[in-house]
Amino acid sequence: MFDIQEELKKLPGKPGVYIMHDSKDAIIYVGKAVNLKNRVRQYFQSSRNKGPKIEKMVTHIRRFEYIITDSELEALVLECNLIKEHRPKYNTMLKDDKTYPYIKVTLGETYPRVLFSRQMKKDKSRYFGPYTSAGAVKDTIELLRKLYQLRTCNRSLPKDTGKERPCLNYHIHQCLAPCQGYITPEEYNKRIRKAMGFLNGDFQPVIRELEEKMNRASENLEFEKAIEYRELLNSVRSVAQKQKITSADGEDRDVMALAMDQEDAVVQVFFVRGGKLIGREHFHISIATEDTKEQVLETFLKQYYAGTPFIPREIMLPCQIQDSNVISDWLTQKRGQKVYIRIPQKGVREKLVELAGENARLVLRQDREKIKREEGRTIGAVKEIASLLHLEGIQRMEAFDISNTNGFESVGSMVVYEKGRPRRSDYRKFRLKTVTGPDDYASMYEVLTRRFTHGLEERRQIEEGGLDRELGSFTKFPDLILMDGGKGQVNIALKVLDELHLSIPVCGMVKDDFHRTRGLYYQNEEIPIDKSSEGFRLITRIQDEAHRFAIEYHRSLRGKGQIHSVLDDIPGIGPSRRKALMRQFASIEAIREADVETLKNVPSMNAKAAEAVYRFFRDQRREENAKTQLKNESN
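and the corresponding structure tokens:
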């Protein structure tokens, strides 16, 4: 038994990282401290104003552990690594984890290539980027290959020189065939240096050269060549216009700004490489109401640079952060050169930070509008359904479906939607235990009975203190039950609820002859629903999801050989006779109703086999009748 108060006394007064665990031993928070003893004790002091998020987290802490380090910098590095590895629930987390493309020039090769890369490695290659658009990177690489006639093959040169014929690019004048030795390494590398100059933003020599070639071709009446040069010139100008000069110092820097509201934040990052703005990207962050701008920016810095291979020389922020010096030292170690974190106060740099902030606010505003549209699809759709059924306060909806194939054991599915969104952690699968053959009503009766009986039992155990509320997977009951079908399925659900003394609205999702949602069946009435409404679309999504989940489970069991034909249970009926019976009759029910003479006429069947089939289903029917009679007598 972990005694928190006793363990707090043992904490050392040294720098390090502390790790909080919940009752399931999951890591829920990771933090760093200059003094572990002082920092960790603060979480458990009632006099401290910790904020709602930390207050809630503390109620879930069942134990903690810590790792001491020699310095605060080491603690920072370890904290970043652990957060990235475990993604704890109560740490402020980036919502996305992106990788950015680079342009790679393989300078380690005799005849270098210009390639697309998602990683920047410590090799002999030169990397340009990162860029925010993979499409733009590919377009730029294609342009460079055309401009400088660079090779695209992966042949090992000069070892493989002359071993194979030149490729198509040579014949269409887009490669100078170094694979044939038609160009010397010295001449080829002059072109590579020009390509790297282009990537560094030196566009004017290329533009002048193309303009001269275009004009010369036009004067010589070589109009096809002139058009080709014109297209290349337009491509170069298009790339050049995307890069805005921000300074003449040629430095690499990241410019960051933040926009935030009560629940969400957006960090905008401008990538300045070689003194030029080459792109931008935004990142969404989940925050708590008490998080400050400075705290969010600091968290973002640590997580972002823990995951990106490129560290710029300078990082510009709109405000000072608490661990600025420690983070700067950490980034300096990662880069191998001094990294500066600055807060510009005037001039072009301040304007650039302001521009990043304006973009961040724009993204946050646009996303808020997107969230409103999403709420229309979810919460708004739930309100439409509630209005149709004259119900109030619908939050949780559960939908049920049965899947079976002729002669295969049935399985059931339960899907859960909360506030119009799927809650997949609450989905449940049921393998039928009491039903033989394809009886959807009996199968649904079993599934619903098991679902709600289990829930009632968990509730009872929680009340008696024998079960943690968080461990009860069936305790939460729906505000509305959705059945895949009409009157028959709804009545089955109502019967189960009546037997268990539960009062939950039940609605059927009625389909037309083409198996498309037609309307809702509620309180003995079919209610039409506008097919262009969000409510209708949500009903369709739920119905499709319940069906998909049931079929997926059914297939997985069948694939493992865990579901078999009921005909396999009949002595003397092997694969050949089973196939013959299924070909002759439309369904298992038809086989069940057939007499001995009819069964005997099926190809490959004889009198003994026909008798075995007839006797099997007759005994099965007798057993079902006995169960029904017993149940009626008990009622």
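(Above: one complete record from the training split.) The chain has five domains: 4-86, 102-243, 253-374, 382-559, 566-634.
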